[in-house]
Amino acid sequence: MAGRGRPTRATVYERLDRALEELNQRLGGLPSPTEAQEIWSDIWHLEAHHSTALEGNTLVLREVQTLLDRGIAVGAKPLREYNEVKGYADAAKWVYGQALEPEVWNEGELISLGELRHIHHTAMTPVWDVAPHPDATDQEGPGSFRQHDLHPFAEGMTPPGWPLVPAEIQAWVAQVCATGKKIESGEALGHPLPEELARIHNSFERVHPFIDGNGRSGRLALNLILVRLGYPPIIIFKQQRDGYLAAMRRADAGDHGALGELIARAMEENLNRFIVPNVAGPARLVPLAALVDDEFTIAALRQAAQRGRLNAVQGADGVWRSSRKSVESYRASKHKQPKGRSAKKKPSPAGLFDVGTEADSSA
């Protein structure tokens, strides 16, 4: 941590490493969709909303949830926008299911060309049914590579000519699979994992293999890769759009640091927000970051733990850990405290999961 400000990139990477180790060694890794439907459903709603919003979709989260859960299009948006969300959500559900069922993919092959085309076909077909790309030929529909050259991007990067696309995207698939074998064998990558993931994501977008839907397909493909490696999928939030595009521009020039940091933060966010608190159970010790909610910030929980108000332990790695049960006990004790009064006696030593009665009016 640099002073009291934003954590350094190295700190973000170290924090992610610890969180992943916690997930895999103490908590048994990612849950499957059938084991934890609620966790994946929450991630699914948010990803479908934010990833399409990055491309200009105007549905709000409530409209996305109603569409996906009840099949009802509320609001007065163009049909194309509802179909964009539905197509993306169908593709994301396929990604989650395929990634977590090892019998359906060849170990060591994180993604295949056929799977990539299937992702694009699933995500884009509903859109294409009502609003096909105006420049597309019959051979450039969902799941098919472009047969047009693209104009240079506003930032200056020019995708390869269309005759080169099949070979370049096949080379990308081969590079991803080679990287996956390195990661699974524990072989050093030569740079932080998030920056390797950034390189993978940026390399796909630089090829831009489809005439439309490359951003959505690229983020879905990255999530397929992540979950097959045992990592949480990521969500790039719509409010991060400017930072995401700026990081992609820097990656175009060979600097993958900013994009790597964004990916690392997104992985940790999904771990702490959805996965760890749910797979751990109410009494299982987890880092305080996974117990943050609308009432308690991580700073408030850490302060309560240090003062003995929240039952918690500090590990040899310096990380404070507590449980949902202990946080709920602490919450109840705070709410019982009469306004304008503070507890005067010090908390007595207690077991980690004893229900505390000491109120804390300052954290």
UniProtKB/TrEMBL annotation:
<dbReference type="Pfam" id="PF02661">
    <property type="entry name" value="Fic"/>
</dbReference>
<dbReference type="InterPro" id="IPR040198">
    <property type="entry name" value="Fido_containing"/>
</dbReference>
<dbReference type="InterPro" id="IPR003812">
    <property type="entry name" value="Fido"/>
</dbReference>
<feature type="compositionally biased region" description="Basic residues">
    <location>
        <begin position="332"/>
        <end position="347"/>
    </location>
</feature>
<feature type="region of interest" description="Disordered">
    <location>
        <begin position="321"/>
        <end position="363"/>
    </location>
</feature>
<feature type="domain" description="Fido">
    <location>
        <begin position="111"/>
        <end position="268"/>
    </location>
</feature>
<protein>
    <submittedName>
        <fullName>Fic family protein</fullName>
    </submittedName>
</protein>
<dbReference type="InterPro" id="IPR036597">
    <property type="entry name" value="Fido-like_dom_sf"/>
</dbReference>
